Structure formats: structure tokens, C-alpha cells
């Protein structure tokens, strides 16, 4: 239904770059540069048994944020293509030959209802079509959590403690394939740590995580 409206909307609103909003057929050359980087590796929980390697492509800035929001809140197709490509790039950082299972980070159920979709699940499915991986949405938010973007680093961790559950279905399938956690943005690592904890509680150890974008602070540490 929505697809059939696009040609009409494109006539009314000239196309714009989803990053900087300047008139452009798709993402402009200046914004493209932010997404055309080799993935970097960031280690969470360094020097611990629960170390988690995260591969991520774009460093967070206003133009990157705009693309993330355009896909997350409005389902903009061009933004979706950029994020899919970034996650594919990050995916290649983990392994080129193994077939893996993507486990998307879940959104708050309220946000899923408001948006009418689970954007990370949609994105994982798009990436998996191209990478040949599988997708299992087995982590659920089990209580009300506040919007992480409004909280300090300490508050973010506290907000998420015990917030995720791993549903026990398909655990046999999970045992057969390496698991990769997938999120749009790595900020403090609190979300991925909580997802990792929920999986470990079911005896599932992810081999790594991928995100489309990351903040600079974690790279420096
Ligand atoms: Zn641009």
C-alpha cells in the first residue's frame, strides 16, 4: 500500500539526501563518505570472559544520526539501503564464510506499536537476504524501559539491568550456528551487554555483534 504512494510523493516533494537533507537523488557524495569506511572493532568487557567484539562502520555525527532516524521512525527506503550496506560491511568483519544467526536487539513494545514495525528485525532480514545468514528474534523487552538517549551512561546501565529475556524457542537451532547480536547504534555498550547477559542465561554465547554506527568515545577507550 505504502509502496504505491511513493511515485506520487516523489512528485510533490523533491528527493533529498537522508543525511544532510540537501536536494539529491539519493545519499549525497559528502554523506556517503561517512558510511564507506572499513568496519572498526570495539571490544566490550575487555579482559573478561564475557568479552564481546563489536564491528561497526559509521562514526556518529548529525548526518549519520539523520539516516538512523529516517529509517527507524519513518522507514525511509534510501536510509534503509545505507544501513543494510553498513551492517553487511560490519558483518564481513566477523567472518566471511560461516553462516550465522542474527539476533536483533528488540525495541520497546510501545515503540514497535507506534512505528507499526520492529525496525531492527526488518533491517536484519534485509541484511540476511544478502549475506545468507539466518535471523531469530529471540530477545524480548520484559518490562518498561526509559528512552536510553535521555540518560547518562550510569543511568543507561541501570535502566537496562534485567530488561531483556531470551525466549527459549529455537535454542537447538541456536546451538548449531554462531550468533551475532545486531543493533543500529553502539553508544555505551549497555544495550549489547544486557542482550549478551540474556543470551548467556540460556547458555547461548554470541561470537560478536555488529552495529551500523558507533559513538567516538568507545573507540578511544
Ligand atoms: Zn548529504
From TrEMBL:
It comes from freshwater metagenome. Belongs to the ComF/GntX family. This is Unannotated protein. Residues 114-212 form the Phosphoribosyltransferase domain. PANTHER family: DNA UTILIZATION PROTEIN YHGH (PTHR47505:SF1). Signal peptide: none annotated.
Amino acid at each position: 500500500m505504502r509502496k504505491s504512494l511513493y511515485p506520487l510523493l516523489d512528485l510533490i516533494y523533491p528527493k533529498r539526501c537522508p543525511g544532510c537533507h540537501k536536494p539529491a537523488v539519493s545519499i549525497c557524495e559528502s554523506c556517503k563518505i561517512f558510511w564507506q569506511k572499513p568496519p572498526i572493532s570495539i571490544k566490550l568487557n575487555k579482559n573478561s570472559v564475557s568479552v564481546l567484539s563489536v564491528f561497526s562502520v559509521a562514526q556518529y555525527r548529525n548526518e549519520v544520526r539523520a539516516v538512523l532516524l529516517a529509517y527507524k521512525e519513518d522507514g525511509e527506503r534510501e536510509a534503509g539501503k545505507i544501513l543494510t550496506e553498513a551492517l553487511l560491511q560490519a558483518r564481513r568483519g566477523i567472518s566471511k564464510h560461516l553462516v550465522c544467526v542474527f539476533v536483533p536487539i528488540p525495541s520497546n513494545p510501545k515503540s514497535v506499536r507506534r512505528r507499526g514495525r520492529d525496525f531492527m528485525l526488518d533491517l536484519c532480514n534485509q541484511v540476511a537476504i544478502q549475506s545468507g545468514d539466518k535471523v531469530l528474534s529471540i530477545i524480548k523487552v520484559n518490562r518498561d524501559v526509559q528512552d536510553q538517549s535521555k540518560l547518562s551512561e550510569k543511568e543507561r546501565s541501570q535502566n537496562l539491568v534485567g530488561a531483556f529475556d531470551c525466549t527459549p524457542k529455537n535454542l537447538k537451532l541456536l546451538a548449531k550456528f554462531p550468533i551475532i547480536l545486531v543493533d543500529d547504534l553502539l553508544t555505551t555498550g549497555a544495550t549489547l551487554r544486557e542482550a549478551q547477559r540474556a543470551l548467556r542465561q540460556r547458555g547461548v554465547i554470541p561470537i560478536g555483534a555488529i552495529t551500523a554506527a558507533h559513538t567516538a568515545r568507545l573507540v578511544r577507550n
